Amino acid sequence: MECTSCGARQIGEPMAKPDVLLPKLGGSFAAVSCVLLLAFTFLAVWLFGNDMKVGRVLLVWALGDGTKFTQELLQINPKLPYYKIFSYDAYRQMFFLGFIWIPLALLGVWLGRRALQRAKTAPEEYGGFRLARVSTVASSLLLVMFSAGVVLQIPDALERSRLKQAAATRAAMYALHAEALEKYHREYGSYPQELSDVSRVNAEAVPNTDYWENNFTYQPTGVIASRGSAISFSNYKLISAGPDGKFDTEDDISMEDGIILQDGQTKIEKVPASTKSFKQ
Q: Rounded to an integer, what distance in angstroms lies between the CA atom of residue 184 and that of residue 154?
């Protein structure tokens, strides 16, 4: 027999099909590999992340404090035996790496379900039914665990973000006080009547907006002298409207004479009309 397209000729009888066909296990092994990858990477990050604190604590617990190695660990950090926030570290790692682990867990579920379906419909061709079922369940549990870890950490992440934004705003207010307002006060014996007046003592740009890019509200207070058209102020208030961009609300951040005021002390007081007439 000769092939009409390429001219190849048959030189022997075709091989007979084997009596026993081994089922394919690639899909099941792929699903299990995904589960193992997730489990081992999570444990590795949990144990060796955060300066290996969890791993060092477990070593001290397992080996005791009588070995030279654990004694060196305790010299570096004597508080290791009292470290008990393992769940916080786990949730923290889930939150920061959830964008990797959750898709991998979804992939594991998909691979396991596909291998399970193939083993059901064609058992003579595809094997690993139990392996696929176990990997599907394990991937589903990991998916739920990682998703819950991300969801539970969202409020804490938002709170950390809020504190970071407020800290950046306070830093800008301190910089404005030290680099402009205090310089003006030392130069002229008075705080400026307008925030723009600080350009007289500091030509460089100083922060006049908060983290949310809203302008600070500045108001001089404590009129101590008035001579002709000049007016002097002994105090001032600097106020940020906070994340909502509205004054006289609970999230306002207020500074008075270089000191950040506590909550509830941020109400804006308008400059009296008598002092407005002395603007330069």
A: 44
Nearest alpha carbon to residue 240 among 264, 223, 218: 218
Question: Which one of 162, 196, 228 terminates a domain?
Answer: 162
| Tens of each residue's pLDDT in the chain, 280 residues | 566 777 677 676 777 666 666 788 899 999 999 999 999 998 888 888 777 778 888 888 788 878 888 888 888 888 777 776 667 777 778 888 888 889 999 999 999 999 999 999 988 888 889 999 999 999 999 999 889 888 888 888 888 888 999 999 999 999 999 989 999 999 888 899 888 888 888 767 778 889 999 999 999 988 776 555 667 888 999 999 999 889 888 889 999 999 998 654 544 444 333 333 333 3
- Let me know if residue 95 belongs to a domain: yes
Token output for 129: 């039914």
Structure tokens at 142: 């990991």
65 and 137 inside one domain: yes
For the four alpha carbons of 103, 107, 112 and 117, in that order, the dihedral sign comes to positive
Strand partners, 259: 256
* Spatial distance between the Cα atoms of 53 and 61, rounded to a whole number of angstroms: 12
Are 253 and 163 a contacting pair, CB within 8 Å?
A: no
pTM of the model: 0.59
Number of domains in the chain: 2
Q: Containing domain of residue 47, as a range?
A: 26-162
Is the domain of 148 the same as that of 91? yes
139 and 177 share a domain? no
Give the three-class secondary structure for 149: helix
